[in-house]
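Ticket #4471: structure output looks truncated?

Reporter: J.K.
Steps to reproduce: submitted the chain below (422 residues) through the standard prediction queue, then opened the result file.
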Amino acid sequence: MKRTLFGLVLACLILSLFISCGKRDNPVRTRYLFHDPWRLERTFTTLTGNIIEGAAGARKDIYIYLPPQYDPIKHQPGLMSEGFSVLYLLHDFGSDYSTFVSVYKITQIADQLIAEGQIQPMIIVMPDASSLALASDAWKKNKGGAFYTNSILLGQYEDYIIHELTDTIDVNFHTFVNKPGEEYIPDPRYRAISGLGMGGYGALKIAMDYDTLFASVSAMSPYVSFESFFSREIMDKMFEENGIASDNFSYSSYKSLNLWSDDSLHLDKTYSQLILSMAASFSPHQLTDPDTTNFFALTTKGGIKYGVDLPFDSTRTIPPGSLIWNRWLLHDLKTKLTNDPTTFGDLSIYLDCGDQNELKLYKGTRTFSQLLSLYGKEHTYIEYGGYPNYPAGHDNLIYDRLVEILKFHSHHFPPPAYRGAE
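Returned output as attached by the reporter:
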């Protein structure tokens, strides 16, 4: 009897809980209209001369995010003294034009921030700087990268971004232009450039070389100091990927380094791909140079081997006074800033990096920030942490960082100047 009474009481209690829960109002979530980006495909003449991929490497896809306020009928290209601000967003090594959309959800982030009034509507342009011929896996999942640098092996990637890409966007979309006379001139106050990793490096480098063409620049986990990046640990990882023991300093083993996964024991060639791609950008082997001590072939065309010179030798050190290393330093952002502290002009600058970045990029970014302060360059630098079991690594927390990136650039754009803007 007692057991039956207890069962009835328990049943009533559970029923009352269900009823009370049913009477509660569920929280109302704001709905945002997520917009798919526009996709353009073009052949860019600045990339047609590349040796590694040939004509196929000159055909590039671009994703363009257009904000909800963009009306393709009333927002036509070339309308005077009005238009949307533009952010050029450059992808990382091993990624392509689609990564910010498919992985980091930039369209959802932008739609939500615009709907909440946290940023002004802007166009976001995501170009492609991958190089499939520098990817070692058979399925081309890893896409290599060209480091947004002019290279005889990979193509004129800086020119591609700063000239052909920007012209393509200004001709086809409602960007802000002025007309002093009869020529349409893009207004740099409504332009910004940003990127992640390799893209962060590219954004900073392009902004340093063309500081009058943008209002602001930002970089997430950028390669700003080759000296701090190119540690013995990084070199050892490349040798390890190629099955070379840590105590093997033979020249024959050194010359066996490559980026292709040619055996089942060493499928992951991430560091080999990264370093050889950097060399393809910064130290392509010159055909007139008879010294092949540090030469590594990447392709053969017309019976001629084309490739790169690596700056380190079989002892995994960079020799003092290395001519190859000096070629790298021509593209090193820390060196460029030291040689010309006036670079960046009046640009607004934002940098960040995770404190557990696997490539230790926070070391170089921290030093770069200190140099900017030394030279009186106002900027923002954030070295952020992660969470338990989710450290602030190179690819983690990028969604959160993009929120801050969009807010930063929106803040430094002038007020909206498109039709229908309040």
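Triage note (M.O.): checked the attachment and the full token line is present. The radius of gyration is 25 Å.
Status: closed, working as intended.
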